[in-house]
Amino acid sequence: MTAKVLDGKALAQKLRTDIAAKVADRLHRGLPAPGLAVVLVGEHAPSRVYVRNKQKACEQVGIRSWLYELPETTSQQELLDAVDRLNADPIVNGILVQLPLPKQIHEDAIIRAVHPLKDVDAFHPENIGLLAVGMPRYLPCTPFGVHQLLVHNDIDPTGKRIVILGRSNIVGKPLALMLMQKKTIAHPTGGDATVTVAHRQTRDLADILRTADIVVAAAGSPRLVTGHMIRPGAVVVDVGTNQVEGKLVGDVDFVTVAEVASALSPVPGGVGPMTITMLLQNTLLAAQWQDAA
Q1: Which of 90, 138, 168, 251 has the least C-beta neighbours within 10 A?
Q2: pLDDT digit string (tens) for 80-107?
Q3: Residue 61's domain is classified under what CATH number?
Q4: How far apart are the C-alpha atoms of 267 and 250, rounded to whole Å?
């Protein structure tokens, strides 16, 4: 068996064309283009790459973006003050504080400081709470990207057994909430799936993974998932982004898993482009929410 490649790059481009059309329609109706403010603290090289890619994506679809760069020595209070100014700025619809932050800054405090209506990462406890009760305002970007990668490839999670390998607040936990919930008018992206969350401390991990119709690998461990851990015909989505000898690799050993799985997302070119696209979607949605506020 040779797995179908779940091409996130091509799908992201298609979805961005749709977003660009909606932004253009706003302008035609006399509404301003959505605006995204990105705050970058310090000199973390991968963060600079991510931010640059986000800015390019905004430009592609007509979303205004502003980059606020702060030094590595920035204090927590200085960053909180910067976030407060952006919260109060009416032309800023979405705020993204790029993680990780320097060690002197508590990330939780910054996440809580972003106004929930401008929290386009969907990290704020209020937005996570709305997701948990099945009434999401925004969907976290990477889980949303995973969901869209599945459904646009005609992989319906309804009734499936899904194992999510990873329990982070950014991917594992919110994705589990999305995929386990019923589809409703308020939450049309509910997965109606049976979801198991595993992690690197899970005993008999391979046995658990082999029960899954769909595996989502988001453990942050390079090539952790190999072909013998996957049930023949399963779908595998690789969320991992790890640097190994200067090369970007996922949490899945692509070669051995591709021989067993029916479909597999690559790294790079799978979930990554989808994450940025969902950020654009959330920024557009934030502008719509704030139009009505």
Answers
A1: 90
A2: 999 999 999 999 999 999 999 999 999 9
A3: 3.40.50.10860
A4: 5
Catalytic residue, chosen from 118, 119, 121, 281, is: 121
Question: pLDDT tens digits for 146-202?
Answer: 999 999 999 999 999 999 999 999 999 999 999 999 999 888 889 999 999 999 899
Nearest of 145, 127, 144 to residue 135 by alpha carbon: 127
Catalytic choice (54, 118, 160, 173): 54
Residue-range definition of the domain harbouring residue 71: 31-117
Same domain, 87 and 164: no
| 151 and 101 within one domain | no
Would you call 121 a catalytic residue per the annotation? yes
How far is 183 from 192, CA to CA, in rounded Å? 7
Tell me if the bond preceding 102 is cis, omega within 30° of 0. Answer: no
**Residue 98 is a catalytic residue:** yes
Task: List the CATH number of the domain containing 180.
Answer: 3.40.50.720
